Amino acid sequence: MREVLASLDTVPNAALPTRFGPFRIYGFESEEDDEQLVALVRRPLSDQRPTLVRIHSQCVTGDIFHSLRCDCGEQLEQALQRIAEAGSGVLLYQFQEGRGIGLINKLHAYQFQDQGVDTVEANARLGFEADLRCYRFCALVLLRLGISRIRLMSNNPEKIRGLEAEGLQVVERVPLVVEPSPVSQEYLKTKREKLGHLL
What we know:
Helix content is 38%, strand content 23%.
């Protein structure tokens, strides 16, 4: 993954003013498997203190259209707000829609869910595992940004294990708690009971 190992000067980046304050956005692409992600960085980052980090998987329905089926959009906004309040941090935005099955397959899964099955069962009917995401590229990008000790905003223990397997030190898990809606209650229950999320 030459892009990650090269100087950050070679990575496309630009100022990104947001309603959560100023960030700098970096774009990374893996030559191994064409995986892409963007990093929103709020400086200054410190070598002395663990960095506040969120790894957020793309969710078009939640992040853009504010769907109530999931907690994704609210988690994204919470994470950006916390980075803003802390004055520094990193949000990595992975393009791994639907826990890695892609947008169209996620919509097929929604159809099954409309018939009464949960997200895990819907993925199984489509021939997928419950969660196909991988965090290796995220770990490499964080290391390229000079970050090895992190405070991870996540409810997903698999993210912690995935990052630690790549040499990062997760010194603290920072929960992202979203008040469930009547629509999302079963979704969150499935995340807790079948995927082991810490809710």
